[in-house]
Amino acid sequence: MAKQEENTILQMHDLRPAPGAKKDRIRVGRGEGSKGKTSGRGDKGTLKRYQVRPGFEGGQLPLYMRLPKLRGFKSPFKKEYQVVNIATLDKLFPKGGKLTAEDLARAGAVRSGEPVKVLGDGETKSAFTLTGVKASASARAKIEAAGGSVSED
């Protein structure tokens, strides 16, 4: 009879999960009695009691206060002039003549649609008649010495 018991066939109703494989799910937030004290939230601490804002460093001086501040002021009304030296004018227009800011933009000396100022770096023998362009005192003196003129209107 003992030999017959060894040869028993495994049946569906004999199958069982391995010990420890099936655990009851934790019913979070249902009080201590349901599963044991902390409702799945771990042990003590600030984050267990309430939420703190992002970036909070536990009372230490926070990063955003430790970093240096941006100082100063930028006027939204400041005019940024594009500068052209007399040497550049002499190179682009060797014969001189009447020039406007648009002529300088077409020649590639400046960008169009922005105010232009001529500076006095370099020398010229050509007579330039500049209109709609600002000029430094040294540039104005050099242009007028060569027989030219500057008007800002």
TrEMBL record:
- Print the keywords alphabetically: Ribonucleoprotein, Ribosomal protein, RNA-binding, rRNA-binding
Q: Which SUPFAM superfamilies match?
A: Ribosomal proteins L15p and L18e
Q: Which domain of life is it from?
A: Bacteria
Give the CC-aspect GO terms.
cytosolic large ribosomal subunit
This protein's record includes keyword Metal-binding: no
Q: Bias regions of kind Basic and acidic residues — which residues?
A: 13-46
In what residue span(s) does the Large ribosomal subunit protein uL15/eL18 domain sit? 83-150
Pfam families found in the cross-reference section: Ribosomal_L27A
The biological processes this protein is annotated with in GO are: translation
Question: Do you know which InterPro entries this protein is assigned to?
Answer: Ribosomal_uL15, Ribosomal_uL15/eL18, Ribosomal_uL15/eL18_sf, Ribosomal_uL15_bac-type
Query: Which Gene Ontology MF annotations are present?
Result: rRNA binding; structural constituent of ribosome
Which residue stretches belong to region Disordered? 1-47
Q: How does it assemble?
A: Part of the 50S ribosomal subunit.
**Annotated function:** Binds to the 23S rRNA.
Q: What HAMAP family does the entry give?
A: Ribosomal_uL15 (MF_01341)
Q: Which family does it belong to?
A: Belongs to the universal ribosomal protein uL15 family.
Protein name listed in UniProt: Large ribosomal subunit protein uL15
Upper lineage is:
Bacteria, Bacillati, Actinomycetota, Actinomycetes, Bifidobacteriales
